[in-house]
Design brief:
The structure holds 2 protein chains of 2 kinds. Chain A is mainly beta. Helix content of chain A is about 0%, strand content about 60%. Chain A contains no helices and 11 strands. In chain A, strands 2, 4, 5, 9, 10 and 11 form a 6-stranded mixed beta sheet that branches. Chain A is globular and about 45 Å long. In chain B, strands 2, 4, 5, 6, 9, 10 and 11 form a 7-stranded mixed beta sheet that branches. The N and C termini of chain B lie far apart (about 35 Å). Classes of the chains: A mainly beta, B mainly beta. At the A-B interface, β4, β5, β9 and β10 of A face β5, β9 and β10 of B.
Chain lengths: ~110, ~110
């Protein structure tokens, strides 16, 4: 069964600190993996996308890594800011569906305290 | 450019009533999607449309219907609402609908069925 598991479920850090969020997946055949940021009361917004051949990608203070062999990804946030408080959702696509079938993790709720 | 708009922002509805959630995009994207997001669960696909005039069922289609009369609009209808349909509903669109596409999400509609 295709699944996406994220950890931790929630995380609290102090402003300025770094953190790493984890995503494990069993989706096959794998197409790509995205990290989305969802602010409270808003729709998700794409942060990064990685295909099978990519093992790291950065977007400002966000750096995503992908290990396609172990089917794991991480999202590292550097020098956190209050605006980083949000839910971070790992989303994996498979190559088996012509309609871009997406598998969503349940998200990690990050809270950044001043 | 507004991107994707959804209406209403929120709604309280009596069980058994009919309700249509509206979604409009101005990006001329071919593919559109409806998801529901429940506390503790990942986003789940209700229905999708690959292009105007075609629709398909997602993971949780029961109790919902959609239509795609033109490129821009993708309304979601609950024929007879039930309390289990209480959720936050997100409309999304993507340029082509394939696995490499990024989906862009609307702000969501919070629906409460009593």
């Amino acid at each position: 069964k295709n699944q996406v598991e994220q950890s931790p479920q929630s995380l609290i850090i102090l402003e300025g600190k770094n953190c790493t969020l984890q995503c494990n997946y069993t989706v096959s055949p794998f197409s790509n993996l995205r990290w989305y940021k969802q602010d409270t009361g808003r729709g998700p917004v794409s942060l990064t996308i990685m295909t099978f051949s990519e093992n790291t990608k950065s977007n400002g203070r966000y750096t995503a890594t992908l290990d396609a062999d172990t089917k794991q990804s991480s999202l590292h946030i550097t020098a956190s800011q209050l605006s980083d408080s949000a839910s971070y959702i790992c989303v994996v696509s498979d190559r088996g569906s012509t309609l871009g079938r997406l598998y969503f993790g349940r998200g990690t709720q990050l809270t950044v305290w001043p | 450019i507004a991107g994707i708009t959804q209406a209403p922002t929120s709604q309280i509805l009596a069980a058994g009533r009919r309700m249509t959630l509206r979604c409009t995009q101005d990006m001329r994207h071919n593919a559109m999607y409806w998801y529901r997001q429940d506390l503790g669960l990942g986003l789940r696909l209700i229905h999708y449309s690959n292009t105007a005039g075609t629709t398909g069922k997602g993971e949780v289609p029961d109790g919902y219907s959609v239509s795609r009369a033109n490129t821009d609009d993708f309304p979601l209808t609950l024929a007879s609402a039930v309390p289990s349909q209480t959720s936050v509903y997100f409309c999304a669109s993507s340029a082509r609908g394939d696995t490499a596409d990024t989906q862009y999400f609307g702000p969501g509609t919070r629906l409460t069925v009593l």
